[in-house]
Amino acid sequence: MMDPAHTSVLLHECIEGLAIKPDGIYIDATFGRGGHSSYILNALGEHGRLIAFDRDPAAIEAAQKFVNDPRFTIVHSAFAQMDEVPLTAGLIDQVDGVLMDLGVSSPQLDDSSRGFSFLRDGPLDMRMDTSTGVSAEQWLAHADEQDIAQVIKEFGEEKFGKRIAHAIVNTRVHTPINSTLQLAAIIAEAMPVKDKHKHPATRAFQGIRIYINSELDQLRDGLKAAVKLLKPTGRLAAISFHSLEDRMVKRFMREQSKGKNVPHNMPILQAEIDADKVLKLIGKAIKPSDEEVSNNPRSRSSVLRVAEKL
Question: How far apart are CA 110 and CA 117, in angstroms?
Answer without folding.
Answer: 7
